[in-house]
Every structure is written in structure tokens, then in C-alpha cells.
Design goal:
About 5% of the residues are buried. Helix content is about 15%, strand content about 45%. The longest helix has 9 residues, at about 1-10. The protein is of the alpha+beta class.
């Protein structure tokens, strides 16, 4: 989760696509060049240890002018954790 947040901060589209599950990955990704991320807070996690193949991370990502809260699902593919999808939270 932290590495993907950092990729959003620096605009690393290649890493974001690489770390996205092939089943749910978009063909392309365009980031808003004016978006300024200002912080990440991990609120909760479930599973996702070395003994799991799936896990979730609930987080709050702050940006200039607001924040985004999401519960993200991750799965292990080829030994690597990849983002599957997420549910926005109020």
C-alpha cells in the first residue's frame, strides 16, 4: 500500500500498473498532474502476512483540498502483492 501511495505521489504510472492485478488492471492510467498528495494513514489491515495469499488495507490518503478513504484488496501473484480493487468509504 505504501509503495503504491508513493507511486501516486511521484506520478509513477508504470509502477502502479505493474503492481495492479492483471485481472483488474486498466489498459492505461492517466493521473492528474495537479493532484498534490499530502499524507497516508493506514487505519486497519486484515491478513496479508507471509502466510496469506490475500489481504485488505483500509487507509486515508490526504491531498490538497480533501481526503480519500478506501478499503483495498490485495492478492499475491507470482510471490508479489498486487492491488485488486477497492471500496471507497465515507
Amino acid at each position: 500500500m505504501r509503495s503504491r501511495y508513493c507511486a501516486f505521489v511521484v506520478g509513477d504510472v508504470a509502477y502502479l500498473l505493474k503492481s495492479w492485478h492483471p485481472r483488474t488492471r486498466p489498459a492505461q492510467l492517466e493521473l492528474d498532474p495537479d493532484m498534490r498528495w499530502t499524507g497516508l494513514e493506514i487505519l486497519d489491515r486484515a491478513d496479508g502476512s507471509a502466510f496469506h495469499d490475500r489481504g485488505t488495507v483500509t487507509f486515508r490518503a490526504s491531498y490538497r483540498g480533501g481526503e480519500l478513504c478506501e478499503r483495498s484488496r490485495f492478492e499475491r501473484v507470482g510471490g508479489e502483492w498486487v492491488y485488486v480493487d477497492g471500496e471507497f468509504l465515507d
